Amino acid sequence: MITRSKIMALSLCFCMLLALLPTSGFAEAEVEEETVAAAVPNPWKQKNIGSPAITGSASYDPAADQFSVSGAGTDIWGKSDQFNYMYQPWTGDGAIIALVSSQTNSHDFAKAGIMIRETLNADSKHVDLLLTPTNGFTFQYRTETGGTSQSVKIASTSPAWVKLERKGNVIKGYVSNNGLNWGDLGNLTLNMNASLYVGLAVTSHNVSSLSTATFDKVKVNATGDVFPPTEPTNLQANSVTDTTAKISWTASLDDVGVKDYDLYKDNVLTQANVTATTYTFTGLTPDTTYNFTVKAKDAAGNISNASSPLTVKTTTQTDTQAPTAPTALISSSKTSSSVNLTWTASTDNVSVYEYDIYRNGTLAGSTPATSFNVTGLTANTTYNFTVKARDLAGNISAASNALSVKTNPASSDPYTPEVVANNLETPWAIDFAPDGRIFFTERNSGRVRVVVNGNLKSTPVITLGSPFYYMPKSEGGLLGLALDPNFATNHYIYIYHSYKTSDNKVANRVVRLKENNNIATLDKVLITNLPGAVYHNGGRLKIGPDNKLYFGDGNYGNKDDTLTYLGGKMFRLNLDGTIPSDNPFGASSPIYSRGHRNPQGLAWQPGTNRLFVSEHGESSKDEINFIEPGNNYGWPKYEGGNQNQPGITPPLIYANGTTWAPSGIAFVTQGPWAGNLLVTNLKGKQIIRMVIGEQNGKPTINSSDLNYLFLNKYGRIRDIVEAPDGSLYFVTSNNGDKNGDGTPDKLVRLAPNF
């Protein structure tokens, strides 16, 4: 069984076709083999291929389910084959799966990964997927015995799940950053023997030193659904009486799907096959302590590790006693827009469940901790705070002592940056819930994440499964996100993502999710078969002032701009997926505008409800367009400054002689930047603040009215939004992006000082 760790990585994948020649027997007898006595379990063996100057070694830790492999040698590249190979013979269908969890940095081109090779000779045909310490991943293959290796380099140095899968005459290679979502990248036809060797390869590129790599959760001949679900998390008691305990937990994740849960009381299975994420234990004894755990199961019978135990003590009788009031309420820190509160814990005859924080008599938030950060405040303003405690029976304490706090005066800088979440996996789009939660997508992992009370939840809101598709070095995956205007009551989330069609083509679609307690499930597919490709998938998704759903798709490598082809278009739908009757090309067409190369950002100008869109140009000539229904914006015939053509709408401004690679955009509604348009830049590694003018009833942007913010401070910046409290939030796109440098991605808040 494999328990997935939370791995910070790039999601990248590839596909290889091999036509297998029928032969019999293994190739083991061709060369002398080296076995490692008692170091690794059978049927694993070891061979130092190509006689490296320093002999490598291998060991296995059964408690951690981890192999450690050391190897030296010139390289696995070109005609060189010098490395340490821990392998086993293999025939028939199956797969090798491993997590490359660490690698020593003996040389920038040291390599560690998984390999399939025809023989144990140094000149053998082979296919491998190898990780270098600083120069990214490389997919390598030698198609002829004694020939020269070839490779495709992938820009990632993060730890990654890797898989080579063999089915008949097809071998596919995959990489995943979480062991849940796998995809493919291209294909290769190669003649090799039917009987092969499969294993783990390590080389140092430095002949005088060893490189060591660790491989977790290695599985060979793993077919079908081999991954158990993740263990349930966040067990908590929702209510406790003298004879009952109602508990809940956060749903587990699985690469295929969680079927149900088994519940244990004091390590004894009490209730099997529970499909919900809540359960009430009955028939308990008063004044007794119990330990509850939960395990998840999938349809293949794989069972997760047990959750962390939840200890609950039943009451002696029906609980009518409220907790004591919190005491010693103080402010530990404050800014011009926030106040951090701490207090002394309350006591209760059973237990305190949560604290409610009140600002000027209105509930500002709740927390089980004894501290809370109240945000969205006005500078140089006095606020009154109190805190009350609640127990599981719903009894509420008296209020704490009242605390009066005056926020700091506004700073000379309009905003102060602060990192909200770090070590993210290619975040792409952000939106806010009415209760203050921050939802965002991670493109490569297929995850929707949530920040609650300033803290990133470790469990995703959802991790997309099949047919979700992410291809490495591409611009597809999980892209846009928007919350329904009535999210407080219907909990709808709209997302745009790439997927594989039934005929194995890449496409994009928009789906609606339904969220409950920070967990979402698929509710409805709104539109499918939007053109997909390696690049130019568009993907930004917003809900307009008219309560319609707007989104765009790119037109990568396609010259077709007719209304029957959906690439290179902006779209408008009703929130249920139907087509609005007043769409510019009729009630049967979702198209809103045309002639787009790769639209990346959408925003409406406050007070006018004009739609602005950012768009990638070819090499340069990135554009900011004012979108009017039914208009044609030129691509593929025109872009940048040559769009003053009949029937073509030119951009408001375009990058001339430089490249912005603009992405998310947002209008500012508060503070000194009110009315300005903020445009995030990927290649430009900045945010451009644009002043919007007016001429002849149309918006204008002059090149002299551009201000460049945070240049090279955060790297590639993907999206920016304004929160209801006036804060600005943006996400970076450095780790897992095809042009990123691998540095950890962040969600950054610009806290207002006005």
Notes on the protein architecture:
- The protein contains 1 helix and 59 strands.
- It has 754 residues and is mostly beta strands.
- The chain folds into 4 domains: 14-220, Jelly Rolls, CATH 2.60.120.200; 233-313, Immunoglobulin-like, CATH 2.60.40; 327-406, Immunoglobulin-like, CATH 2.60.40.10; 415-752, Neuraminidase (6 Propeller), CATH 2.120.10.
- Strands 1-15-14-9-18-5-4 form a 7-stranded antiparallel β-sheet, with no helix packed on it. A 7-stranded antiparallel β-sheet has the order 3-8-17-10-11-12-13, with no helix packed on it.
- Strand 19 (233-240) and strand 20 form a beta hairpin.
- The radius of gyration is 29 Å and the shape is globular.
- The model is unreliable at 1-38 (pLDDT under 50).
